[in-house]
């Protein structure tokens, strides 16, 4: 079964100045799913993120300067491919993603190539309001049409991918803000990957500061719509995804 100890699973945790929360987040993962490996992609943090992650037993990739979530995730997926992981799952360093949901999100890979841990999917009380809510709804609606399945939370970073998805992400993973969620999904779906969602509860950030203020997030979400339309104009990848390739 996906998410069980027989599979080789990698948690990829993008982290930028998360010294307040990263230690407890890694600890929670080790308790909830002790059989997974944790890779922290420390993206030029100016604080003790890297030292704390290492002391907590994670594998740490220290990027020399800030690449943003997309670049960091692509580096993480390249690691996953190189070391032959069966699946990889993104978990935020700020404690918003509950590690106890990891097996459920991984279990979604039994029916699709990408499994998204989604808010608004009947569970939890995560609230977004005003323009941010509208933008999220619209993106979810468009991506549901594209993915031919009901998706309620296309901007969730809590998502797992199988080998086919990892292979796709290694070749294309947008670096621009929110491209890691929307654009990457559009390209994956258009390259023939299937997607599903699993309801999860999102917790509030457990400490530290958000990388973007709420009003910025709203603006970015509207920009994400444009980025999505641009993504739709990209040609799907032609080479078969299962073809082995050295990285
Ligand atoms: N590698 C990398 N990680 C980042 C960067 N910016 C944010 N992150 C990480 O990405 C994850 C999500 O970032 P957040 O700032 O929590 O964004 P968010 O969850 O959309 O916003 P909140 O709801 O306010 O928490 C966290 O683990 C951050 O540490 C970055 O530039 N590089
Ligand atoms: Mg967060």
Descriptive overview:
The chain is α/β, with parallel strands linked by helices and 247 residues long. The protein has 8 helices and 7 strands, in the order E-H-E-H-E-H-E-H-E-H-E-H-H-E-H. The protein has one domain: Spore Coat Polysaccharide Biosynthesis Protein SpsA, Chain A. The chain has a 7-stranded mixed β-sheet, sandwiched between helices. The longest helix is centred in the C-terminal third of the chain and has 20 residues. It is globular, with a radius of gyration of 17 Å. It binds guanosine-5'-triphosphate and magnesium ion. The site of magnesium ion has 4 residues, from loops.
Secondary structure blueprint with pairings:
Elements: E1 9-15, H1 22-32, E2 37-43, H2 49-55, E3 59-63, H3 68-82, E4 87-90, H4 102-107, E5 114-118, H5 130-147, E6 159-162, H6 163-171, H7 182-190, E7 195-199, H8 214-233
Parallel strand pairs: 1-2, 1-4, 2-3, 5-7
Antiparallel strand pairs: 4-6, 5-6
Helix pairs in contact: 3-6, 5-7, 5-8, 7-8
The structure holds guanosine-5'-triphosphate (GTP) and magnesium ion (MG).
How far apart lie the N and C ends?
Answer: 28 Å
Low-confidence stretches: none
How large is the count of helical segments? 8
Provide the CATH top-level class. Alpha Beta
Structural class: alpha/beta
Strand count, sense and barrel status of the largest sheet are: 7 strands, mixed
Shape: globular
State the main characteristics.
binds guanosine-5'-triphosphate, 247 residues, seven-stranded mixed sheet, single chain, 38% helix, Spore Coat Polysaccharide Biosynthesis Protein SpsA, Chain A, 15% strand
């Amino acid at each position: 079964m996906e998410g069980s100890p027989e599979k080789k699973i990698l948690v990829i945790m993008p982290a930028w100045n998360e010294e307040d929360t990263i230690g407890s987040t890694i600890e929670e993962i080790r308790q909830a799913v002790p059989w997974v490996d944790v890779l922290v992609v420390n993206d030029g943090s100016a604080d003790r993120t890297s030292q704390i992650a290492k002391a907590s037993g994670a594998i740490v990739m220290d990027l020399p300067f800030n690449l943003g979530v997309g670049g960091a995730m692509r580096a993480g997926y390249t690691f996953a491919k190189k070391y032959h992981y069966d699946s990889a799952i993104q978990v935020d360093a700020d404690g918003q993603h509950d590690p106890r949901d990891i097996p459920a999100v991984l279990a979604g890979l039994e029916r699709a190539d990408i499994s998204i841990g989604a808010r608004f999917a009947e569970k939890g009380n995560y609230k977004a309001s005003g323009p941010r809510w509208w933008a999220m709804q619209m993106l979810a609606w468009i991506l549901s049409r594209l993915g031919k399945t009901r998706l309620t939370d296309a901007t969730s970073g809590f998502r797992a991918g199988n080998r086919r998805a990892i292979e796709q992400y290694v070749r294309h993973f947008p670096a621009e803000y929110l491209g890691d969620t929307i654009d990457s999904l559009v390209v994956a779906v258009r390259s023939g990957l299937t997607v599903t969602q699993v309801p999860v509860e999102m917790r509030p950030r457990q400490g530290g500061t958000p990388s973007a203020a709420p009003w910025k997030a709203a603006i970015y979400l509207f920009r994400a719509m444009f980025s999505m339309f641009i993504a739709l104009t990209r040609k799907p990848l032609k080479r078969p995804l299962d073809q082995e390739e050295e990285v």
